[in-house]
Amino acid sequence: MKIIEITGIPGSGKTTHFKLIKNYFHQKHLNVYDVHSIVLLAKKFPFSNYYLRKIFQRNNNFLIANMLKVIDRLGNLRQPYLTKFIANHPDFVSNYITFTAARSIPEPHKIMTLEWFFNTASVYGIAEELKSLDGILLVDEGFFHRIIHLFLSTEETLVDDKVLAHFLSILPESKLVMIDAPLDICENRIMHRGLPRRLKGKSDGAVHTYLENCRTLIKKGSMMLSDEKNKVFVINSTAKIAAQELAVLETFCQSDNSAINKKMFCF
Fold it and tell me: How is residue 2 annotated by DSSP?
């Protein structure tokens, strides 16, 4: 199963393009899954918190008290896959919890980022389990996107490049479709439809800085991805995607030629 991720700053048009691309692939009779559909395909098996307890012992801080509450919200189906992820990557999870605890952001924000992290890890576990499926997993705000957003806040400076590279190293092999749009257009869109939860109550200046930092980290992160494993496809969301451009995207998404390395198209 090939993984195609959609990313971009808030208001760039990710969901709109996700629907366009998904519909196009369906019309081409390709097997296309989204996160909801692969969760439904996942097998139900008992949840064990053995590995979670091991992580708790190594991270004695306030986050631990909220961990099980966060994990409960994942639901019975996703929890075992989170356990599997933690079992396979204990140091990675422990490092993230330690990093989060030390951040200079409000405690509710720390808990919220922890929830995003576990949510992403559980879906990652399901995707790994189903990687033998024939088809395409199309993810709106996928693994790359969520890891980038774990490090964004209005209270902090940009995360260190080495820290970002460390956490991006866990990403599965994928194709990244980056939706690009002018900052002012994105600001107008999110002001019109309503601010994301973490930006509610923030000043216009804080929102603008957040979007600027988001764009910087997305572009920086995309350049950090392994050339041999990942490819990046850029779409300008101010232009309508024509059938010809979708056909180029289809070829890009299905290509297995590692010699292509990082391949970029700008419309």
Answer: E
The domain 1-42+139-267 is placed in CATH, from the list 3.30.70, 3.40.1620, 1.10.150, 3.40.50, at: 3.40.50
CA 220/CA 217 separation, integer angstroms = 5
User: In a structure prediction context, what are the per-residue pLDDT tens digits for the chain, which is 267 residues long?
Assistant: 788 888 889 988 888 888 888 888 888 888 888 877 777 777 766 656 655 666 655 555 555 556 666 666 666 677 778 888 888 888 888 888 888 888 888 888 888 888 888 888 888 888 877 777 788 888 887 788 888 888 888 888 888 888 888 888 887 777 788 888 889 989 998 888 888 877 888 888 888 999 999 999 998 888 887 554 557 777 777 666 666 677 777 777 666 543 323 333 322
Q: How far apart are CA 240 and CA 242, in angstroms?
A: 6
